[in-house]
């Protein structure tokens, strides 16, 4: 076997229990696509980060992203490994996502969106 062969996907260790990708894209005002930043993402993601830190769970992390392609739906986030897209609008929505999905393992169905490509 070649020593430089890549690992099969099944051989790659899962580093985190859950990984949240949160869009921080900020476009200029009145941009035709809009942006999560213009839709109020910053305070929501700051709250998300604080909630995750306060939980003490080191196996749940958040990564700031640029545009994920669904600008008009913003602010948006996606949780892996489940691949669930959320559209939180309030700090309380973020709290519910953390408590129910990230820590509890259950969907917050009222905030789930299904992106259309």
From TrEMBL:
Its cofactor is FMN. GO terms for molecular function: iron-sulfur cluster binding; metal ion binding. The gene is fer2. This is Ferredoxin. Keywords: Iron, Iron-sulfur, Metal-binding. InterPro entries: Thioredoxin-like_sf (IPR036249). SUPFAM superfamilies: Thioredoxin-like.
């Amino acid at each position: 076997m070649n020593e430089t062969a890549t690992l099969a996907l099944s051989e790659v260790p899962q580093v985190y229990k859950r990984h949240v990708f949160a869009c921080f894209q900020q476009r200029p005002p009145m941009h035709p696509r809009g942006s999560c930043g213009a839709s109020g993402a910053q305070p929501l993601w700051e709250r998300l980060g604080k909630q995750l830190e306060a939980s003490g769970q080191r196996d749940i992390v958040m990564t700031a992203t640029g545009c994920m392609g669904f600008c008009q739906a913003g602010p948006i986030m996606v949780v892996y490994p489940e691949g669930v897209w959320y559209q939180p609008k309030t700090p309380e929505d973020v709290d519910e996502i953390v408590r129910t999905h990230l820590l509890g393992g259950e969907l917050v169905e009222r905030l789930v969106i299904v992106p259309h490509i």
